[in-house]
Write a structure and sequence with these properties.
Blueprint lengths: L1 E4 L4 H12 L5 E6 L3 E3 L10 E10 L3 H14 L14 E3 L8 E3 L2 E3 L8 H11 L7
Antiparallel strand pairs: 1-4, 1-5, 2-4, 3-4, 6-7
Amino acid sequence: MALGSNLGERAAHLAHARARLTTLPRTQLLAFSGVEETAPVGPVPQGPYLNQMALIETGLTARELLGHLHAIEAERGRERGLRWGPRTLDLDIVRFGERAIREPDLVIPHPELPRRDFWLREIAELERGAPAHV
């Protein structure tokens, strides 16, 4: 899963998300990639993001996981409005094992995965057996 923030205390928002991921039911955190700063994606002018990937193992369904992620985003003041707009915290399910899901509000693998080089770098880091970074 992807963690991102470009509003407010970006590093604190990511730290909150990392801590909360460890509290999800039937879920175990396996590793985090390093944090990297990236340019925003999309047509809306905004500041740079801090991004990081997390590798988890979960007994939750993708839909249940998404609900928990939206709740964590809301804890940090995330407001859903402008598509591609700035965010205090953005948590995305990028892959869910080998499963493919195509629903109106949940598409896995994430459709932007092939176009986000930083996600591909962070996933590669996790696949090489990266330890949990803070």
